């Protein structure tokens, strides 16, 4: 019964994943078409306004959101907030002549609130990282100290990956030089210290 349930669950997830990909492709194509239409309008009228540029930024943010979702399967909440800030700024710029003072203050206060929400989310993600960020997709948050160090006694921060190819060139060079210095400093088994010889 459990095996059948697992197969059914996998089939449902696979179907949902296919529909997600189709929806993301449709969103990407529609965004590209909208951006192409906007660029064509700017070329036809031979004028470029700040509202047009902000609209293109909106399209780019949507495409970036689609790309991140396709790559990781997750949607960062900060991207829609960025899009909301750009959209509110564009609305304020385009409708400034028709808005009253209170309406402009309300739009500006909304932008400030969204920016504070972005800062809070950013602080929370750095202060309290989720377990998903500790996987292979992310660089380790806690670096491992190099016990060898350099001549000044400092240590290098290395990645959690023990593979030498994952280390930076200067870090690998310092590790090699540290091993050589340690070999030169080690006394031979039959060699007496200088103080004992005296």
From TrEMBL:
UniProtKB keywords: Cell membrane, Membrane, Transmembrane, Transmembrane helix
Annotated GO biological process: cellular response to phosphate starvation
Transmembrane intervals: 16-36, 48-70, 77-93, 105-124
Span list, region Disordered: 145-198
Keyword Manganese: no
Membrane topology: Multi-pass membrane protein
Entry GO terms, CC: plasma membrane
Subcellular localization(s) per the UniProt record: Cell inner membrane
Biased segments, Polar residues type: 189-198
Family that this chain belongs to: Belongs to the PsiE family.
PANTHER family noted in UniProt: PROTEIN PSIE
Identification of the protein by name: Protein PsiE
Organism expressing this protein natively: Thiomicrospira aerophila AL3
């Amino acid at each position: 019964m459990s095996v059948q349930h697992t197969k059914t669950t996998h089939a449902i997830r696979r179907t949902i994943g296919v529909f997600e990909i189709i929806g993301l492709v449709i969103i990407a194509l529609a965004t590209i078409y909208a951006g192409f239409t906007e660029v064509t309008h700017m070329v036809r009228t031979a004028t470029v306004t700040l509202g047009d540029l902000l609209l293109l930024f909106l399209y780019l943010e949507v495409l970036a959101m689609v790309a991140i979702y396709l790559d990781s399967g997750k949607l960062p909440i900060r991207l829609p907030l960025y899009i909301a800030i750009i959209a509110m700024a564009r609305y304020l710029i385009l409708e400034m002549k028709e808005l009253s003072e209170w309406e402009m203050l309300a739009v500006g206060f909304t932008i400030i609130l969204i920016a504070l929400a972005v800062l809070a989310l950013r602080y929370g993600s750095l202060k309290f990282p989720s377990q998903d960020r500790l996987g292979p997709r992310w660089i380790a948050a806690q670096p491992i100290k190099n016990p060898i160090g350099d001549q000044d006694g400092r240590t290098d921060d290395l990645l959690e990956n023990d593979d030498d190819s994952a280390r930076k060139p200067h870090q690998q060079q310092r590790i090699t030089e540290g091993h050589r210095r340690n070999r030169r400093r080690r006394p031979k088994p039959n060699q007496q210290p200088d103080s004992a010889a005296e």
